[in-house]
Amino acid sequence: MEMKVGLGLYRHMLTAEYYDFARQAGCTHVIIHLVDYFRKGASNSRNNQPVGEKYAPWGMAGSPHSLWSVAEMRAKKRAIESAGLCLAGIENLDPGHWYDVLLDGPLRAVQMENVKTIVRRMGEAEIPILGYNFSIAGVCGRIAGPFGRGGATTVGMDGPADDVPVPTGTVWNMVYDEGGGDILPSISHDELWRRFTRFLEEVVPVAEKAGVCLALHPDDPPMPTMRRQPRLVYQPSMFQRALDAMPSPNNAIEFCVGTVAEMTQGDVYDAIDDYSGQGKIAYVHLRNVKGKVPKYCEAFIDEGDVDMVKILSILERNRFDGVIIPDHAPQMSCAAPWHRDMAHTLGYMTGALATLRNEQAIKGSASCNRH
Ligand SMILES: [Mn+2]
Fold first, then answer.
1. What kind of fold does domain 4-370 have according to CATH?
2. Ligand 1 centroid vs 113 CA: distance in angstroms?
């Protein structure tokens, strides 16, 4: 078994045309988003990663009363398979379904049941991975500018982002209640870990039974606090704490190379070696960056601080057999920037992998000759 190349598709991209695009670009797998990050999001283009203004929410969360159905999941899986691809997982829960789990609010018990129902339904539909973020402030505090090669527009941070607190009715950069308007009280890191551990203790047994692997994404950007709320995983070692909080084959991580490279401690190569060596990486986001928080920007796959060939060779050496997908990329100047960015990143990934595998094949045949 070897690692597989996949593509992440946002909800509005779950169509035959995008599945064909993934195949044509060399993918065998897709990871899909069922959350619509772009609903009523005025400052958020569908032809890019979701990007709000520095503190603007991406858009409206989904209805708390309509959970994704088994029929819907199965229909998506069938369409993906009939295009010649495998559905490797679903990325992200809808804040509308579980905001009070993150906030420890009055609907927590009901919304924990929502999460368990979604996990059980994924099991029924045979979708093996659920990527998620356990984050109150979510992706925020970023600015966009011509920071990429050739002046490509990309996102990054130009300093800490604690000046504007999260309003009530918003969580994880989406609005679940437009009647908010107060300020969400700050909580401690200990309280966030208490909520997270309680979440794992309740959901991991369900995930084990359903055959679904939970995959935790680190906090993007990985600051200790943002918008006066604590972050869960903002240094590489904090993944270990999350894994140890509930040891299980179904408690794993979504290793985001870009986010880990932005962290101020440790080293992205040691971290990916450690967690892939433990077999705890469910899937990988590949993205390059320049700098570390609180001053960094996202970069083209072949442009930033991270040696992607070294990352892939570590995964290969540790026999990682999951899916690697492009994360975000700078916006290239053309009419279809999302397509161009993904094709460029995938071309680089498949080229690097082919080279690594050729080198291994040569080494393998050389060692055979010596015997
Ligand atoms: Mn990521």
1. TIM Barrel (3.20.20)
2. 26
